[in-house]
Amino acid sequence: MARTTTPRYTVPGISVEDGGKLIAALGMRLHALNDLHLTLKHVHWNVVGPHFIAVHEMLDPQVDRVRAMADDVAERISALGGVPQGTPGTLVTERTWDDYSIGRADAIAHLGALDLVYTGVIEAYRTAIDEVGKLDPATEDILIEQVRDLDQFQWFVRAHLESAQGTLSTGGKATEREAAEAARES
């Protein structure tokens, strides 16, 4: 049975058609946030090396905030008349990205890979902000607030990857493995 994002009703001032567009955009953000939460916990559990404790402890507040973001997005989907899809099967079926590819590794390697993960999430957020901003400023506001936090989390990660001259060790890398290796070598 094909799932639809078109609601039977939505919030006042938004058409059912536009509500469906908002729900679809938010559904992908929900998948990204649920995936990011799990990825951050995976790194938290699998980070090793001299920077272990710094990275281990840096990630827990990010995990907590990302979980809260997912809840806000899911509740907005519900308010718009949609059904938030938070099951692992739906996430895996509908996502447009691959699973995080780094297992047990040193902190710097994980941070290099996380830099690319954050880049992907943030770029998709900015696209979604552009899309939903044409339809609903309330939904746009939720996403803008969240992207500010995601930008900050990436900054925390990148602070470990930046040289004193301002060069980012992961600059120009296309895969998590390439970014992890570049970070490890710098």
From TrEMBL:
Residues 23-163 form the Ferritin/DPS domain. It comes from the Bacteria. GO terms for molecular function: DNA binding; ferric iron binding; oxidoreductase activity, acting on metal ions. The keyword DNA damage does not apply. Residues 174-186 have a biased composition (Basic and acidic residues). InterPro entries: DPS_DNA-bd, DPS_DNA-bd_CS, Ferritin-like, Ferritin-like_SF, Ferritin_DPS_dom. Residues 167-186 are annotated as: Disordered. Keywords: DNA-binding. Belongs to the Dps family. This is DNA starvation/stationary phase protection protein. It comes from Streptomyces spectabilis.
